[in-house]
Amino acid sequence: MSRDSQIARIHRQPKSAMQSGRAGAGDWLLEFAPGEPKRLDPLTGWPGSGDTNGQVRLRFATAEAAIAYAEAQGWRYEVAKPPVVRADIKPKAYADNFKFGRGENWSH
């Protein structure tokens, strides 16, 4: 399958679940959906496919830049709305557990 027949998905990169920081979460990604299902290799048993478009992952600073690149290449695309991020979350530090004059009881 060629890239012309596949739809590129443009979306905002989510925050990593492995870190509390938001580094790299503001980037916009352009990715292709799989063009064919994965199949098991009879010799090794590893999954794989002949579609290399699934390996393409391009980063852009803005959604407009990603859209302009997709249009310049002649690719069909869809843009996903960015997720709603709560701004009222107060950052905490481990050292706050041992702070003098702490108002809460020690819980553990």
From TrEMBL:
Residues 1-23 are annotated as: Disordered. Keywords: Electron transport, Membrane, Respiratory chain, Transit peptide, Transport. It comes from the Bacteria. The keyword Transit peptide applies. The keyword Electron transport applies. It is found in: Membrane. PANTHER family: NADH DEHYDROGENASE [UBIQUINONE] IRON-SULFUR PROTEIN 4, MITOCHONDRIAL, NADH-UBIQUINONE OXIDOREDUCTASE. This is ETC complex I subunit.
